[in-house]
């Protein structure tokens, strides 16, 4: 496959351990000769044996049972076959990619860069009220998304398929370089997510409140407040580097 390709990944897990993956799904997005990106037919999912019983809390989300994965391969054996296909891919992508990056370590991915469609959606569609994978699906109604292929939700292939349509549209509105850059930073929230100023855009927040929020425990709030302070001319603070070990909202 010679066309530039990005592989969208989605994981279902059976717990919080480093090998607790019980399913991996994927969907490729490719760039055509006209420069436009499209969702292709290369998609799939594989069950994974997490090596121990899964928690009822996680089973209640994806409905994958211990008996379903009893004869499946272990994560370390199956992950490289999906994360490093036999053709070149430019990057891996996921919605809230920090979660997938906990399990898809550089050793398994070969050090491929990641795109977080959640972070990129905040930048490209800041007017939207919510940014979860499924809310974006129904707020935006992406062209060409076959409803049935994207079901059931909370299974790896359908979720990757939905995310791939967001990625395609993001790539057709912004450059790959922009998406990679935005994904390497914390999320730039379009509005204050909580507190007395909840729902307000950052340009409506007082300087003093912004300075308080610039020290918030949440990395995305800190980053968003500091970005607005910098826009107002305050001395930029050292960059905040997001990592897969960061907190998840």
Description:
The chain has 11 helices and 5 strands. The chain has helices at 56-62, 66-69, 75-83, 97-103, 106-109, 117-124, 133-140, 156-171, 176-183, 207-213, 219-231; strands spanning 5-13, 21-31, 37-47, 91-94, 114-116. α6 (117-124) packs parallel to α8 (156-171) and α10 (207-213) packs antiparallel against α11 (219-231). Strands 3-2-1-4-5 form a 5-stranded mixed sheet, sandwiched between helices. It folds into 2 domains: 5-183, 2-Layer Sandwich (Nucleotidyltransferase, domain 5), CATH 3.30.420; 188-249, no CATH class. The two termini are 37 Å apart. By secondary structure, the chain is an alpha/beta fold.
How is this fold's topology laid out?
Layout: E1 5-13, E2 21-31, E3 37-47, H1 56-62, H2 66-69, H3 75-83, E4 91-94, H4 97-103, H5 106-109, E5 114-116, H6 117-124, H7 133-140, H8 156-171, H9 176-183, H10 207-213, H11 219-231
Parallel strand pairs: 1-4, 4-5
Antiparallel strand pairs: 1-2, 2-3
Count the E strands: 5
Gross morphology:
globular
How many domains? The number is 2
- Give the fraction of residues assigned to helices: 25-40%
Please give the largest β-sheet: 5 strands, mixed
Range of strand content: 15-25%
The number of helical elements comes to 11
The name of the CATH superfamily of the largest domain reads: Ribonuclease H-like superfamily/Ribonuclease H
| CATH level-two architecture of the largest domain | 2-Layer Sandwich
Order of helices and strands: EEEHHHEHHEHHHHHH
CATH topology of the largest domain: Nucleotidyltransferase, domain 5
Protein name: Exodeoxyribonuclease X
Region (Disordered): 227-249
Organism: Rhizobium soli
Keywords: Hydrolase
């Amino acid at each position: 496959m010679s066309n530039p390709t990005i592989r969208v990944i989605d994981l279902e897990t059976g717990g919080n351990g480093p090998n607790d993956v019980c399913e991996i799904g994927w969907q490729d997005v490719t760039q055509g000769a006209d420069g436009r990106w499209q969702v292709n037919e290369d998609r799939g999912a594989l069950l994974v044996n997490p090596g121990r019983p899964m928690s009822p809390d996680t089973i209640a989300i994806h409905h994958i049972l211990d008996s379903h994965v009893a004869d499946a391969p272990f994560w370390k054996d199956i992950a490289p076959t999906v994360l490093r296909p036999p053709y070149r891919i430019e990057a891996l992508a996921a919605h809230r990619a920090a979660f997938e990056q906990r399990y898809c370590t550089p050793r398994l991915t070969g050090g491929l860069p990641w795109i977080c469609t959640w972070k990129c959606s905040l930048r490209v569609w800041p007017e939207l009220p919510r940014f979860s994978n499924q809310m974006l699906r129904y707020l935006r109604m992406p062209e060409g998304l076959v409803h049935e292929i994207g079901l059931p939700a909370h299974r790896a292939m359908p979720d990757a398929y939905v995310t791939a349509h967001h990625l395609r549209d993001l790539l057709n509105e912004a450059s790959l370089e922009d998406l990679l850059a935005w994904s390497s930073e914390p999320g730039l929230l379009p509005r204050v997510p909580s507190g007395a100023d909840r729902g307000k855009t950052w340009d409506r927040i007082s300087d003093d409140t912004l300075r308080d929020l610039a020290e918030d425990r949440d990395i995305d709030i800190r980053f968003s407040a500091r970005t607005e302070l910098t826009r107002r001319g305050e001395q930029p603070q050292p960059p905040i580097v997001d990592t897969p070990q960061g907190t998840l909202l």
